[in-house]
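Incident review: delayed structure delivery

Summary: a single-chain prediction request sat in the queue longer than the usual turnaround. Root cause was a stuck worker, restarted by the on-call engineer. No data loss occurred. The affected request and its eventual output are reproduced below so the record is complete for anyone auditing the incident later.

Affected input:
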Amino acid sequence: MMVVGGMCAVLHGSAQPLMLLVFGLLTDTFIEYDIELNELHDVRKECVNNTIQWKRNYTAAALKSRTCGLLDIEHEMTNFAFYYVGIAAAVFLLGYFQISLWVTAAARQIQLIRKMYFSKVMRMEIGWFDCTSVGELNTRMSDDINKINDAIADQVSIFLQRFTTFVCGFCIGFVKGWKLTLVIVAASPLIGLAAGLMAMFVARLTGLELQAYAKAGAIADEVLSSIRTVAAFGGEKKEVQRYDKNLISAQRLGIKKGLIMGFFTGYMWLIIFLCYGLGFWYGSSLVVDTEEYTPGTLLQVFFGVLIAAMNLGQASPCLEAFAAGRGAATTIFETIEREPEIDCLSEVGYKLDRVKGDIEFHNVTFHYPSRPEVKILDKLSVPVKSGETTAFVGPSGAGKSTAIQLIQRFYDPKEGMVTLDGHDIRGLNIQWLRSLIGIVEQEPVLFATTITENIRYGRPGVSKEDIIAATKEANAYNFIMDLPQKFDTLVGEGGGQMSGGQKQRIAIARALVRNPRLLLLDMATSALDNESEAIVQEALDKVRKGRTTISIAHRLSTIKNADVIVGFERGRAVEWGKHNELLERKGVYFTLVTLQSQGDEALNEKARQMADNEEEPARLNLSRAGSYRASLRASLRQRSRSQLSNLIPESSVPMVGELGPRAYSVSQNAIPEDEEEPVEPAPVTRILKYNLPEWPYMVFGSFGAAINGGVNPVYSLLFSQVLATFSVTDPVLQRKEIDGICLFFVMVGVVSFFTQMLQAYAFSKSGELLTRRLRRLGFQAMLGQEIGWFDDHKNSAGALTTRLATDASQVQGATGSQIGMIVNSLTNIGVAIIMSFFFSWKLTLLILCFLPFIALSGGFQAKMLTGFAKQDKQAMETAGQISGEALNNIRTIAGLGKERLFVDTYEAQLDAPYQAALKKAKVYGACYGFSQCVIFLTNSASYRFGGYLVQQEGLHFSLVFRVISAIVTSGTALGRASSYTPDYAKAKISAARFFKLLDRVPLISVYSDKGDKWENFEGNIEFIDCKFTYPTRPDIQVLNGLNVSVKPGQTLAFVGSSGCGKSTSVQLLEKFYDPDQGRVLIDGHDSTRVNVPFLRSKIGIVSQEPILFDCSIEENIKYGDNVRDISINEVISAAKKAQLHDFVMSLPEKYETNVGAQGSQLSRGQKQRIAIARAIIRDPKILLLDEATSALDTESEKVPSLCLRLCGSFSRGLRGNVTPLHVCVVSWQTVQGALDKAREGRTCIVIAHRLSTIQNSDIIAVMSRGFVIEKGSHDQLMALKGAYYKLVTTGAPIS
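Output delivered after worker restart:
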């Protein structure tokens, strides 16, 4: 296809030079006719026997013999008209084939590149993802591949066509008149050099600009995916600034690029006009003085070389597209050619016939590729026997999860090896190895599809019965059957529609359905409440019989009955044995157990003693503090989010607790329903309004563009004047006229140089400033939307980032350089038409009949393309969502061995855009062919009519040329303007989408100053009869008449099973949502009327899965308060309170250490402590703790859990240098006293699954199905002997 298309392009390219031959003959005919007329105007001459002679009474010197009366100008012109029509027909066909074949071929290749790129990315080892941001990969897949498409589609054939014209033009020049050609060619190196330099600079700047935008894109992606954290800490304005800062460098590069292009374009025009001057001056001397050429030959040679040069110039935008395409292709192909270190789709490696299940670590040393200086595992040696349950315990960051990732072969150890049944796992087939492993993680990732499909990811082709059996084993069956759509319920992006416990149970079912030989439980029951945990734990105990199981848990009671317990410390296994043996050893395990069981025992003890009402005060204190341990352990786990770097796409991570519903809509059919509401293209006036601050640039640019537009008609004036001189019979007058015209050419060139530069600089400046402004405004508008808006799957982080990137830059198509082009074309057409009517209105009218066709061909082409632009965008967005989900959850996909499935789904989504592209190719080809041949048809008609006017009405022939060349060049200007219409139309649609976003009035406005603010904020909170459903799932009632209040300085604890509405109530208080009915009162003010930023500034939150940003530890802590400047001393003091300081000081870069995307470089506990420090620095009046210490191991948790739990910065309480451990061991009373002081003046709301966490709260509210079933203090509720009493004593369900 490419060859045939290329051939057509070459033939098409030779059409224009071919026309020149016809044109030369035609000119000679006209000039001959004019000379004959001039001669016969002389009263002394007459025509006798077809030769001009003196009349009888004059006898002067002998006349040059000239024929007369033989030339029938009309007949000659008719012949020439037929030549033109013939050429036009050929051009149409060739144009059609050249474009449609190349565009089709490009569509095929792009399809292939997309497939190869995505499948290669999915094959990369996990370490590669640690070092590459997902936002950047998404940008590469959309923008960069589109750039390659631009480079290899129609551009190649147009380049070939222009290049052929260039070659043929020169051939004609040399064959017909080598002297003149050499003179003109002497100047061409100057043009060539400029074109080369321009291409080089532009390619370099484009590459740099792309990098800058990719960086900004990564920031946008990170922020939008963590929108709840940003909202809670009021970071919107700060994030907009951070994003804007990254746009500045891209803007500078864009302006520089514009200036460079303007300079070189102006320079080229200058050289071209100098060539005109020189060429006509020298050529005329060859015609007049030496008579070597006829005027026709002069034109053939001159225009041959000129058209050659022009086409070389027009080929330069193609080179720009090639350069941009090559720049983009470099990174794409680097990835495609990179061999993954661990290729998950490779067929090589052994598959063992019998798997016993013995795993052993032999002297394994390991560090993450993204942090080579920090050793995670240090000569780790641990055997795991087949069929046994081995538990890994130890503080956060000791390397437990890392060991599990090595078994899955996400990474390979740097030294040592991991073996399965004595075989190094590096020698085993990786897909087969992973198929043996079932993993249940602390934060399970679900995919945006139904529950059935999610479980089926565990094992393809599994039957419905097996799925049901697995859900029953995982204690998930009952809650699934309660849902309106049962197994067909959509879980939302990242499982956002499910509560934490529900997600966890679906994930367990997914692991069970695999029937794995090795079961890896990474805090598998962490997200479950008591009721579910007991049952799931039992299910897990059942399923691990006969399987090799490795369990990681912070809650030690869950692993007491493991066959072997391994204690980890600093990347080594320091001890192993059974529960009792290890207790005797008094090592790591002993310390952890003692701290934890103190709490558990105390709580149970207390419950037993309640009946007798005998409690020793010390006991009580102990129980209050210690039991913490236990409960915390619980929550301990879900909610933290580990080195498993980008495991969860942030958008789905509920900011607080087990956020009930989020993304995706209710039912399957709700998705396609209103995929993309049609948008009315935006009015240009509104786009320009955003460009208003740049009006001086636009005025100057338009001025430059107007002068540039006038250049073409002036040129046709001069050109026809040159022709007229050839029929002047007086040699002296002739020479004088020629010199004057040549001088004029030089002047036009100089003016053109400056105006081109002015136009390019002014418009690139205004365009780049607009793009940046729109990106910033768009981003700001996104961050200003209420949280419910992000729940809609159409507003997932990936889709929004793509929208920011493409829409903002496309809006430039309606302003900036486009305005320049339009002004340029309009002045060109205006001047040309006025001039033409002045010289010959009849001929002008005839040619104007063709002008609509010239314009129409351009407009038609634009119309077709915009239709496709919309389809393309939609189809690619669906594919983009799939790729986004896959890349965000790459670890889960790798663990399940589902890379191939995602690659196939992605490829299936590419089919629609591919079919659309094929359709587009044919239409585009036909339009192109038509637009190319219109000019030839115009010429044929107008020269024929011109002949008639010259003969019948005595019009001077030079005026025929003047009118035709003026209007035809202006027509091509119109065509050029209309070739920008696709951009223009794209721009209007993009702008409309953009304005829709900017015009949307959020239901809860972050940026408004309206709403109540008051001085002495106390933190008195009341929920009055609150009812609430999530906007994306209106059929599920989450809160059902919630009534509860908490006075300033009190601590309120919510208890209840997953999904009962605990976290939802916290989100209403944060004003992420407003209640559907009922009210939330803060200090007596209705929350719907309170100023949002004011309210959030008084609330500090530590959530279950802390979200950190890809910046330094210091900046993450400072994020706690975005209103003021925070000194490093405050940061350090907050870090000390959160027990973080010592760990930070042990890092090579201390507080400057980058935490990685989503905190991926830190362990869960480390992330949680940074989040705690972040809340402390905020110094809030209301503190929300959603399982805040969940990710701390027993040791780290001891104090912060309490300190923080009971109120944020235990700044006021614990002064002096008491070390946490010391406090713990010495006396619980002191801590309790300090904490009681610490919570003075603060209102605290705590959510916990573990009851021991909250038993010393002032009010405990037990929730079920969205309302409070009982509330009171721990003692009151125990005395009630209701749901809470049952929970504490037996762990029975709350219902």
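Verification: The chain has 45 helices and 22 strands.
Action items: add queue-age alerting; document worker restart procedure.
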